[in-house]
Amino acid sequence: MSLSISKVLTMSPSDETVSVSGWVRTRRSSKNVSFVALNDGSTIRNLQLVIDIDKGYEGMNEETIAKITTGASLIASGKLVASQGSGQAVELLCEKISVEGVADPEEYPLQPKKHSLEFLREIGHLRFRTNVFGAILRVRHAMTFAIHKFFNDRGFFNIHSPIITGSDCEGAGEMFRVTTLPEKDPPQLDDGKIDYSKDFFGKATNLTVSGQLEAELAAMALGKVYTFGPTFRAENSNTSRHLAEFWMIEPEVAFADLKDNMDLAEEFLKYLIGYALENCVDDMEFLSKRYAEEEKLKPQAEREEMTLLEKLEFVRNNGFERITYTQAIDILMNCTPNKKKKFQYPVDRWGIDLQSEHERYLVEKHFKKPVIVTDYPRENKAFYMRVNPDGKTVAAMDILVPGVGEIIGGSQREERFEILKERAAEFKIPEESIWWYLDIRKYGSVVHSGFGLGFERLLMFITGMGNVRDVSPFPRTPKSAEF
Ligand code: 4AD
Ligand code: MG
């Protein structure tokens, strides 16, 4: 079997035969010598293959060379020698080469030049083979691993919450229905509504918007748990930060209040940043360079002062600002863009929903660092959040970061049975859909808290990518589920 290129690049020149396999990024040929940049996905770095047809190795001739074009796949073996060129310590002097699959240069859409991200989205089946997408997917993998490690090291248990549910955790009604009823003439009730009692599960079901409600049940027995799974939202928002299918990490901790929750979330984000910086060095350096090039295209006033790596180091090494919603409104009401009517949604009173432009002002212009906003008006947040002693606000927390806006949403949960029941009624949530959730407040109820980190938002933040469609291998957005 072949060695991975990431491994080969750490080896020294020797007389042993080494075999590698991968896809051709570029080939340069002079008279009889060709140089091939080979990538196998194990690292962003390419291995340089040197093919000298004058050496007379079997099967190494002009015909073979002609097949080695960008995108072709091959298996090569030979000896590692010290590289003449700069940029790599070793290169492979080929003694044997087998072109496994050709890629017609007239047709292959990925040329060795910079393609726009928009174009790459149109060739989602091939964009895996670009430097930028390879880097993102390797970082995505590393973050998945780091998330499990973070929680495992701290005594949390991973809970697999269901993907099909009969409840709407966030109460926003943005759900994809799951049904096996016939499209044509489904069974109906007398009032003309669909009779879901005849459906597969004997009731109306949907894809989950969050694993939180189920995580809470588990936390009431296992103490510290987390979910990490796909969640689905049928909100028709075609923005650069919304996906219809995204992954969410939701820890839930018994005997933890809002302060504990904020501390955990801050420690978690800093850990993940540190993990990426320390374990994805080549990819992060590449992404930081890419980010700097993108920034150069922006008007001076909008440019980020720090590089991506500096920004991440800064966030990792500084405390997050913690303010209440009320303080946030004060800042926003009195800020210059609001007074100059620069916001699309003017901030004119306590009680408004914070829009993404407001969140970004707080983070990018006012505090210039991540901000945790707490204690939102009770009407603006989900039914499960704990009502504060003032009766007007709930123990919510949103974490906002530069470039992305809201990355985490969480809260202390309402653990008091009667109040939770009233809140569910306020939000017109049918009791029969969450009776079990209410029930745990009757038996050994305790103060508890949790939050949800949007995985793709995290990746936008870590990789510096501006569009959530470019950090997901198969993005689902309104009118788009091609690949
Ligand atoms: O703020 P949200 O809606 O909170 C919840 O779902 C809670 N049940 C979490 C909890 O307390 N356990 O979503 C949490 C996070 C957001 O902060 C955001 O990062 C991400 O999920 N998110 C999305 N990411 C991509 N596309 C979307 N449509 C998203 N909606 C939310
Ligand atoms: Mg939220």
Structure commentary:
There is one protein chain. This protein has 483 residues and is of the alpha+beta class. It has 14 helices and 16 strands. It has helices at 5-8, 62-67, 117-122, 131-153, 212-222, 258-279, 281-296, 308-317, 325-333, 336-339, 356-367, 417-426, 431-439, 455-463; strands spanning 17-29, 33-39, 47-52, 73-82, 90-101, 157-158, 164-165, 177-178, 205-207, 224-232, 245-254, 321-324, 371-377, 393-401, 405-412, 448-454. Strands 6-10-11-16-15-14-13-12 form an eight-stranded mixed beta sheet. A hairpin with a 7-residue loop joins strand 2 (33-39) and strand 3 (47-52). Helix 4 (131-153) crosses helix 6 (258-279). The two termini are 31 Å apart. Magnesium ion (MG) binds at residues 398, 406, 409.
Summarize this, please?
By secondary structure, the chain is of the alpha+beta class. The chain has 14 helices and 16 strands. The protein is elongated, with a radius of gyration of 27 Å.
Question: What's the structural blueprint in terms of helices and strands?
Answer:
Layout lengths: L4 H4 L8 E13 L3 E7 L7 E6 L9 H6 L5 E10 L7 E12 L15 H6 L8 H23 L3 E2 L5 E2 L11 E2 L26 E3 L4 H11 L1 E9 L12 E10 L3 H22 L1 H16 L11 H10 L3 E4 H9 L2 H4 L16 H12 L3 E7 L15 E9 L3 E8 L4 H10 L4 H9 L8 E7 H9 L20
Parallel strand pairs: 3-5, 6-10, 12-13
Antiparallel strand pairs: 1-2, 1-4, 2-3, 4-5, 7-9, 8-9, 10-11, 11-16, 13-14, 14-15, 15-16
Helix pairs in contact: 4-6, 4-7, 6-8
This protein binds 4-amino-1,4-dioxobutan-2-aminium adenosine-5'-monophosphate and magnesium ion.
The site of magnesium ion has 3 residues, from β15.
